[in-house]
Amino acid sequence: MAWDLGAGLDGRVVVVTGASGGIGSATTAAFAAAGARVVAVDLDTDRIGAALAREQVEPALSIAADLSRIDSHADLLEQVSALGPVYALVHCAAVLRRRADVRDITEEDWDVQLDTNLKASFFLCRSVAESMRAAGTQGRIVTFSSQGWWTGGFGGSVVYAASKGGIVSMSRGLARTYGPFGITVNTIAPGQAKTHMLLDGIQPEVLDRMTAETPLGRIGEPSEVAGVAVFLASQHASFVSGATLNVSGGFLMY
After folding, report:
1. Contact 225, 29 (CB under 8 A)
2. Half-sphere exposure of residue 98, counting CA atoms within 13 Å on the CB side?
3. Hey, how many other C-beta atoms are within 10 angstroms of the C-beta on 48?
4. Which of 127, 134, 152, 175 lies in the 20 to 30 Å Cα band around 82?
5. Strand arrangement of the beta sheet that strand 244-247 belongs to
6. In the chain, where are the structural domains located?
7. Nearest-angstrom CA–CA distance, 111 and 159
8. Are 244 and 168 in contact (CB under 8 A)?
9. 87 catalytic, yes or no?
10. What's the pLDDT score for residue 227?
């Protein structure tokens, strides 16, 4: 094996969802640097373009898609197929609705977050895995949870954390299902990372407390999460499946 940054990724088709977000755009840039042909997916191609311009990266293809619409997944994969078979799906897309008081959470808040973060994730991951299986591709699927899957939600994110706990269980089940076909499924659980999702609406005292309780004493950079995604999709992680990698600066330890 060649011990380069993204062993096995050069020229491979990698789909990154949530590509206009902080972690998503950093992840897109990291895979491009590793030589992958990156398909950037988000709700709006203009937002993708603006985010990736800041990262100084040009994806092989940008696609606008509302992944909460399960019937959009087939069209997404059809568009991606123009570049070739999917080797890796890195599924960053998620939505967080903060409610400082748990009594303010509505049924719509629950449905929006569970439908996008968990339901859509299952159907998208399954569709991609089945396409890999049909093509005989020993591919990679990387999902995103959160430290909240273990600790519970902080700062008004109870429902978000519940959805991310589901991601861990779902990913383990998919790893067992698709492992016999050479497809790995792993999860990244970021802690506090410098993104709009973390910083928008969180109470300053909650963020300060969490930062103080992080042994490294700081908030992480999106690029520090992106590097873990590249590792999991590369040949360096060829015998890693069903794992949940904690990337929280030591805030969460297990």
Report:
1. no
2. 13
3. 25
4. 175
5. 61-64, 37-42, 13-17, 86-91, 140-144, 184-190, 244-247
6. 13-247
7. 9
8. yes
9. no
10. 96
Total Cβ atoms within 10 A of residue 171: 27
Would you say 146 and 179 are in contact if contact means Cβ atoms under 8 Å apart?
no
User: Left if phi > 0, otherwise alpha if psi is -120 to 50, otherwise beta: which for 11?
Assistant: left
Active-site hit among 87, 160, 178, 254 = 160
**What are the E-state strand segments in 6-112?**
13-17, 37-42, 61-64, 86-91
User: Whose CA is closest to 31, among 191, 194, 233, 221?
Assistant: 233
Phi/psi for 190 (5° steps) reads -75, 150
Query: How much is the pLDDT for 115?
Result: 97
User: In CATH terms, is domain 13-247 a member of 3.40.50.720?
Assistant: yes
Backbone angles phi, psi at 183, to 5 degrees: -100, 125
Question: Tokens at residue 123, please?
Answer: 């159907």
Distance between CA atoms of 63 and 194, rounded to whole angstroms?
25
C-alpha 30/C-alpha 26 separation (Å) is 6
Radius of gyration of the chain (CA): 17
CA-closest candidate to residue 110, choices 101, 123, 99: 99
Which pTM value belongs to this model? 0.93
Distances (CA, A) of 227 to 75, 76, 224, 232: 29, 25, 6, 9
Average pLDDT, 10 consecutive residues per value, the chain (254 residues): 74 97 95 96 95 93 97 97 97 94 96 98 98 97 95 87 98 98 98 72 75 89 96 97 96 87
